[in-house]
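Structure first, sequence second, as always.
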């Protein structure tokens, strides 16, 4: 498989990149390492590194301000379309490689599929797939209704349907969104391709810490909105009943909030997530908005954690009476559910979570729909694909 890399987000001047036969527009490549293609990128990477080292939320605030300036002051950036130069370059590379399948990463890369050179009769047998991830026009509308400025400034149902229609197959990340795509593009092949996950059993030497909660998230608005609701309406009641409860915030979500209540720790970005999840007693997901499939919840489950979550957080997950989720509808229910499970140490809960992932999110279960859509029933001799 070849990967056409556009606008790489390098954290260092040189990084290891274990992708076979990787092509690129931005970085340079030597064996398994990629580096910046222009000296101009060096100061930007260094500046980001230094900003992330600033105390509290100062660095994160400056990074968000810089990002907002790049996208016309938008509060939220849901995606940026490829440029005409990038699209033409990708199309030229695809012609040279003559693949059997092209996988385009969301509608924001789909304009490549509309390049005239890819419509030549010689490339007619090439199948194309858009990995949808989300119903972006619905997410765009919800954010605007909530009062946020969004980039791109406009994204209608008709616009998204047109971009999706550039592909032969549309891969949704969860069943509800697959149903929406069928209405939008009735003449296209639609399949559901959730994120696969492998169970990661807790090592015997790793003990859970009683009363320890965990939440993993970036500094996106759905995460921050959920945490603000948690701290305003749930945390006071929770700590009043159980003063020993603590919460680890992993990722940029913690640094994006100016103040945190007692008992809450900012861990920021971590190199290894497994040790933190394995020591936690319970995971939470207080999201009130959002779409797609919440990968953080899948990560909790594959590490053997039960998750107390809003119903919005659980949209799109495989239905199973033994699912490792406790769905709640309001703040009071959230508090009750956390208190009921927080100090339990039932090995069956851990097994329940691991079995759920192994059953519903193994590779065969996740990719069978895509394999069927592309007629890839026989693994041997499977066609080469190129990911944009």
């Amino acid at each position: 498989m070849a990967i056409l890399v556009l606008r790489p987000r390098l954290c260092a001047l040189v990084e290891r990149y274990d992708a076979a036969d990787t092509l690129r527009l931005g970085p340079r490549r030597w064996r398994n390492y990629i580096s910046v293609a222009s000296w101009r990128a060096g100061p930007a990477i260094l500046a980001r590194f230094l900003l992330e080292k600033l105390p509290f939320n100062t660095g994160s605030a400056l990074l968000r301000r810089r990002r907002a300036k790049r996208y016309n002051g938008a509060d939220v950036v849901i995606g940026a379309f490829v440029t005409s130069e990038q699209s033409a370059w990708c199309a030229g590379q695809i012609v040279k490689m003559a693949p059997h399948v092209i996988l385009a990463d969301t509608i924001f890369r789909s304009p490549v599929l509309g390049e005239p050179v890819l419509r030549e009769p010689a490339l007619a047998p090439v199948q194309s797939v858009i990995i949808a991830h989300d119903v972006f026009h619905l997410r765009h509308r919800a954010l605007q209704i909530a009062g946020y400025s969004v980039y791109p400034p406009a994204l209608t149902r008709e616009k998204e349907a047109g971009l999706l229609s550039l592909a032969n197959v549309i891969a949704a990340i969860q069943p509800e969104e697959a149903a929406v795509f069928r209405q939008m593009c009735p003449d296209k092949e639609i399949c559901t391709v959730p994120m696969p996950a492998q169970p990661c059993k807790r090592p015997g030497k790793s003990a859970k810490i009683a009363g320890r909660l965990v939440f993993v998230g970036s500094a996106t608005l759905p995460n921050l909105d959920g945490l603000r609701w948690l701290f305003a309406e749930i945390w006071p009641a929770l700590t009043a009943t159980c003063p020993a409860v603590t919460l680890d915030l992993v990722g940029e979500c913690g640094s994006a909030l100016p103040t945190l209540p007692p008992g809450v720790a900012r861990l920021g970005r971590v190199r290894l997530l497994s040790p933190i999840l394995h020591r936690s007693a319970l995971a939470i997901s207080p999201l009130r908005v959002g779409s797609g499939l919440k990968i953080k919840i899948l990560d909790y489950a594959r590490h053997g954690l039960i998750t107390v979550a809003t119903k919005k957080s659980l949209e799109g997950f495989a239905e199973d009476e033994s699912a490792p989720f406790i769905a709640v509808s309001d703040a009071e229910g959230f508090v009750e559910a956390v208190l009921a499970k927080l100090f339990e140490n039932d090995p069956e809960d851990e097994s329940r979570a691991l079995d759920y992932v192994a059953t519903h999110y193994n590779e065969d279960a996740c990719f069978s729909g895509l394999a069927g859509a592309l007629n890839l029933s026989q693994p041997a001799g499977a066609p080469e694909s190129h990911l944009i």
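Margin note: The first strand starts at residue 2 and ends at 5.
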